[in-house]
Specification:
Blueprint (H helix, E strand, L loop, with lengths): L3 H18 L2 H6 L5 H23 L8 H28 L2 H8 L2 H13 L5 H19 L8 H19 L5 H4 L1 H27 L9 H29 L1 H5 L4 H12 L7 H18 L13 H4 L4 H4 L1
């Protein structure tokens, strides 16, 4: 039977993936804006927004240790900055549907990476669930009838896939002590600084703009990405990990491309085909199967956060 804690974790994970899946349109609207500078502002704005909220609520954020700063820097570089930049670049040169197929493999990679780091065999049911979710996400995207796959888009998509996996795997070691809010504020802030520094370097070499005055449409899209797709999604995703564990939460990555299809349909710019509907049902079946795998199958860095972090961030907050 699903507990109250698990139900809230499911709701948080579904909400987070729905927002990420629905961000395709917003990302497309900023495709001509300077990528490094724009994404740097996005993450810094998210960090400052959350920090202001923390100060208003008078919540004391724990200070990271030197080791935790290392994990947070990796999380910011790989799971946030790298993933977002590579995703935008991949959709610039390739079909978004094809990119989604690659990203849809995140659940399977999370399970396998977690098993290797924990030095133990993953639950057979959890592996099967990850395979079903990955296949469903791929079917849903291939059913969109996208164009031929660009080799460069595949390479960039694989990098974005690594970032999506890193968002879960690299957060696991710091969440039990730092908590959801602190991990989000620190990692978003680091991601923003990294992107702006990298952008400044590119500007010095090429003379390209680091940032520029956005159009009203670009400004609205950047605000949406900063507030909803960064601040809200990160807090919700890390809180879901705290309740469900990293491996089971990772299954919900398969919902992202399906949510993107739903967003396209609601926006009136596309129609859901039979293969897409079948893929969506497969994703749902895989997630349900994975959630029944039990807390013992949470093999990321040897940490099962739903079991080992009773004083989690959301409760402290």
């Amino acid at each position: 039977m699903v507990s109250v804690q698990e139900r809230s974790g499911i709701a948080l994970a579904v909400g987070a993936t729905a927002l990420v899946g629905g961000s395709v349109a917003a990302s497309d609207l900023v495709s001509t804006y300077p990528v490094l500078g724009g994404q740097g502002l996005r993450y810094l704005a998210a960090a400052l927004l959350l920090l202001a909220w923390v100060r208003v609520r008078r919540i004391a954020l724990p200070r990271p240790t030197a080791r935790e700063w290392g994990w947070l820097a990796a999380l910011g570089a790989v799971g946030m900055a790298g993933c977002s930049v590579l995703m935008i670049e991949a959709t610039r040169v390739g079909d978004p549907g094809s990119v989604g197929v690659v990203i849809g493999a995140a659940p399977l990679v999370i399970v396998l990476v977690g098993s290797v780091t924990a030095r133990r065999r993953p639950s057979g049911r959890l592996v099967l669930a990850a395979l079903v979710v990955t296949a469903g996400a791929g079917i849903a995207q291939l059913g969109s009838g996208g164009g031929a796959v660009d080799p460069l888009a595949v390479v960039l998509s694989l990098g974005a896939l690594a970032g999506a996996v890193g968002m879960t795997v690299l957060a696991a070691p710091v969440l039990p002590r730092l908590g959801t809010l602190a991990a989000t504020v620190y990692s978003c802030g680091l991601a923003g600084v990294m992107l702006l520094v990298a952008g400044a370097g590119v500007t010095a070499v090429t003379g390209a703009d680091l940032v520029r005055m956005p159009t009203p449409t670009e400004f609205g899209a950047l605000v949406y990405l900063a507030v909803m797709v960064t601040a809200v999604v990160c807090v919700a995703w890390f809180a879901a990990m705290d309740r469900l564990g990293a491996a089971r939460t990772g299954l919900f990555n398969g919902v992202i491309p399906v949510a993107g299809l739903v967003a396209v349909t609601l926006a009136g710019v596309g129609q859901v085909t039979a293969p897409q509907a079948a893929g969506a049902l497969a994703v749902l079946a895989g997630v349900v199967l994975g959630l029944t795998a039990g807390r013992t199958a949470q093999p990321v860095a040897g940490v099962g956060m739903a079991d080992r972090a009773p004083e989690n961030a959301s409760r402290r907050a």
